[in-house]
Amino acid sequence: MAENTVPSFWIFTKGEQTIHIARDEGRALIMSGPGTERQRHEFRDEEAIQLYQISIAEQLAERGWTLFGVNRERRVNERRVNRRGTPDRRVGNTANRPA
Question: Which tens digits make up the pLDDT trace of 69-81?
Fold first, then answer.
C-alpha cells in the first residue's frame, strides 16, 4: 500500500523573525526567512539531508535562533488494512479481556 506523507518542517525564531525549514517529498530542503529570503537545497541522499539539517540547526542556535516548533513526517493514509469500527482502539476488543 502506498502511503502519502505530510512533509516535515522546523520553525526557528529570533525575536520577531522566523525561519521555516521544510522537507519536500523528494531530496530537498526549502528554507524560508528571515523576511522574504528563500532558498532551496537539493541533496544526493537521505544521509546528506540529515547532515545538513544538523549543521544548519547548530549554526542557527549559535546565532541566537531558537527551535520553536517541529512537525515530523506523518502518514496521511490509514496504516491498517482493516479499519476499526470505532476511533477508540479499546472498544470492541474482547480478545485480551479477562474471563
Answer: 877 654 444 445 5
